[in-house]
Amino acid sequence: MLAAVNTVYGQYTPPAPQPFQGFVNEWLRKDNPYMNAWDLGGQLRSRYEVRENALVAPPFHDFRRVMPAGGVINGQGNDNSFLANKLLVRASYTDKWWNALVVGRSSSVTGDSRGSAPNILTGSSPDSDGPVDLHQANVTIGNHKEFPLSLKVGRQEFSYGDERLVGAFAWNNIGRVFDGAKLRWQNSLFAAEAFASRLVVPIDNRFNLPSDYESFSGVHVTTKKIPKHNAEFYFFSRNVDRSNPNQFDLGPARNQSPAPFNFSGRDVYTLGTRWKSNPGEVGNWDYSAEYNFQFGNYINDRPDAGPANGAVGARRLEHQAMAFTANLGYTFADVFAKPRLAVEYAYASGDSNPTDGKHGTFDNLYPTNHKFYGYGDYVSWQNLHNLRLSLSAKPTARWSVAVEGHFFWLADTSDIYYNVGSIPRANAAIAGSGYRGAAGFSNSLGAELNVVSGYAVNKATTLEAGYSHYFVGSYQQQSFQNVGGAKDADWFYLQAVLSF
Description:
By secondary structure, this protein is mainly β. The protein has helices at residues 2-6, 23-29, 307-310, 474-479; strands spanning 38-52, 79-94, 98-110, 130-141, 149-156, 178-186, 191-201, 209-223, 229-240, 266-277, 281-298, 317-331, 340-348, 358-359, 384-396, 399-410, 417-418, 424-425, 444-456, 461-471, 489-499.
């Protein structure tokens, strides 16, 4: 479970000084070797967050300096603090030719002001999913030591590459899972997975169900036969019909439109490749690069695109977009704490003209964006230039720390500024009082400074704290020029993780 937590991060990795099978497994396996087939345990994570002037719904008021009389818009201010708890309990049994896994989850939030605004699926905080739900339940048939083919069927997490496009979103208090089937072929040359699935939609205090309107499928191939590299090649298909708000039978008060799961209709196909150097095989250097090209069709629901494009029954626009990233790092292996200095550049295309019959904004798919574009979670890999500088170190085996700086620009000022969940920050109804695509605006989105540190108290417990300050840019100032301008945002968190 600690290894799963580590996948949340890009450059910073929480310390895990020694392998730990869990207290339950240690007790069961101590005197009975037959219990090695069982894996019983879990993880409890508690995180307290304080946010000032950002990351409260609706997203287009992030960084706003002056709130109207009463200090709220749609029942919400721009400051928030809350305690989020996530409990995962797992049971797994492995035989020679098959494995069964069940993971239950409880996701709760206390004190979150976002619960004061209508939220169709969660009904309260978007990080709350009720006291009990089924996170994973799947069966795997196969044994790659004996035969190259295996099949996994059921509710499961998908994680590919470093989760820049497809990830389990473990940082989130709910996470992300799919209902589907996955075939895996593995031999000494390569490993290939082909899958077909539907996205599972969180419904607070209700059993989560897959969406009937959003499917995700693809093929992912990995090989280590290229000298000094791990190479990935993939094709992903995201197909979304315009959702029916009555699908989940939530009652008249919550079956409203548009729903938060009602993404723009689309058929987006992603071709991509990712290359990463093998640890230690290029000296103290390490590097990675990823490139993606997308094609297909898309209904443009951008608020400034006009009602015709976003209307039900509107024709789908031709979709062509691209994104790429490159990361270069150097580890000072002979220096105390073995610091790693790295630079990264990420680009994702925007839409140069929302009314020209084409759609050029890159679709970020199902990522774990928390790892890449600032730990404060203000942007996604869409219509973006991001220059990232990072310094990470491990002063001891139990303690790790990282400092990062991000510089952000819009890739195209005719497109919108997207938040971490790929939702456009826009309020086109009143020019100068909210975000919008404007060719005359600056492309400067400002900068973000992050500091994060973690300490492993023992083999079962990890503590972590982080701070983020976002320096607003000219674009935010111009967006709110008629309502008092924009101001910086701050975020702080303190987190404890207990594995058992």
